[in-house]
Design a protein that fits this description.
The protein is α+β, with helices and mostly antiparallel strands. It has 4 helices and 5 strands; from the N terminus they run αβββααββα. The N and C termini lie far apart (38 Å).
Length: 162
């Protein structure tokens, strides 16, 4: 696999550009906005941690394109404030618009509220996919791009005023 990165302040345009690169190309110095690059060898034991974080216009939120426990991928709005109550408030403001957001996104989303164990909340699209599945790399990357465009548009168009 060419590479996967984690960067906390990139925009969706950079993710789209990276995902459209051929699988055998690693992200290199021609991407000056990147602060870290992780090249993942084919022999890696993939679990948690391979993700790309992007800014969001939602208070205490950011978007993440991630490879989850095998063999799943997700694109989510991740909300995490220093306060569980603040996180819950932001999440519930979005949840109040669930029908409109899901209609705009074109499918049912996974809504995870903060609980006694986790302070964070999320709204996510999930699909099947593996970081090590080179045969389906292009399909997985296309899914990330499409899911990101749909979720961002649905949240900005169907959610509460920011």
């Amino acid at each position: 696999y060419g590479g996967w990165i984690r960067y906390t302040s990139a925009g969706p345009e950079l993710l789209t550009a990276l995902l459209q690169r051929p699988a055998h190309e690693a992200a290199t110095a021609d991407w000056p906005a990147l602060s870290a690059v992780a090249v993942i060898p084919e022999s890696v034991d993939v679990g948690w941690g391979y993700r790309f974080d992007m800014n969001a216009d939602v208070p205490s939120g950011h978007y993440t394109a991630a490879f989850m426990r095998e063999p799943r991928v997700k694109y989510e709005l991740y909300i995490d404030s220093a306060s569980r109550d603040r996180t819950r408030s932001v999440f519930e403001a979005l949840l109040a618009h669930r029908t409109a957001i899901e209609a705009a996104c074109g499918e049912q989303l996974n809504w995870r509220a903060p609980d006694d164990t986790h302070r964070h909340a999320s709204v996510a699209l999930e699909s099947m996919g593996s970081i090590a599945d080179l045969e389906h790399h292009e399909e997985i990357m296309s899914w990330f791009i499409d899911a990101g465009e749909r979720l961002r548009a649905a949240i900005s168009g169907g959610g509460p005023e920011q």
